[in-house]
Amino acid sequence: MTALHVAIIMDGNGRWAKKRLLPRGAGHRAGFERMLSLVDHAFERGVKWLTLYALSAENLLRPKEEVEGLFGIFRTYFPEKSRKLKEKGIRLLVIGERELLPEDIRRLISDAEALTADGTRGTLVLALAYGARQEIVSAVNKAVRAGREVTEEEFSALLYTGELPPPDLLIRTGGELRLSNFLLYQAAYTELYFSEKFFPDFTDGDFDRALEAFSLRDRRFGRI
Ligand code: IPE
Ligand code: IPE
Ligand code: MG
Fold first, then answer.
1. Global pTM?
2. What stretches in the chain show pLDDT beneath 50?
3. Which of 16, 52, 59 to mutate to test the pocket of ligand 2 (most atoms within 8 A of CB)?
């Protein structure tokens, strides 16, 4: 398999919980657990870049209790999990509007990025407080500050995803058929795959089925 970049919109935690008459926070915890093992599985499958949409900038406008619950999960597990990534040789990169996150979480993120910086087996990109429109506007502003016109290649390097290749495959769980402000620029020629399953129910086997479907796609990039 050539070096693949897979992106996942991990949606459906809230509905997963609702179906079980549990609070939404239980869905987020279940989603987080699922994410941890799916990350291992994806890198074992040879995926080189895995980009996970964990929290959008707009999600921060949800009720305070839910947002705090998400930050709580992050605070509890992040340091230990980043040590695990380090052991596995996986580099962590976080993309998004960092200034929208609490100070202590920003510190956890930069510590984890520094700790894992020399990982060469693969890159895990976590989109947190992320919004593609915000990212594009920030890239435009960087170009404006540099005071000159940019090429397509230079513009892409100004995005939070910097030197990463664009995603080959984008999976969205949870049944919605939209991008919800994720990688709008980078996904120009990405193959899209939608699963009805809520993210906590999305198994390693489901991930393999998405890879299989991807391998059967004919990517033409506008050619014939
Ligand atoms: C995705 O699940 C995780 C986050 C957005 C944090 P949701 O919380 O959007 O779950 P649903 O879509 O309401 O089921
Ligand atoms: C997209 O899901 C964001 C994440 C999964 C992190 P949302 O639940 O926020 O998307 P909408 O509101 O259904 O478009
Ligand atoms: Mg949702």
1. 0.98
2. none
3. 59
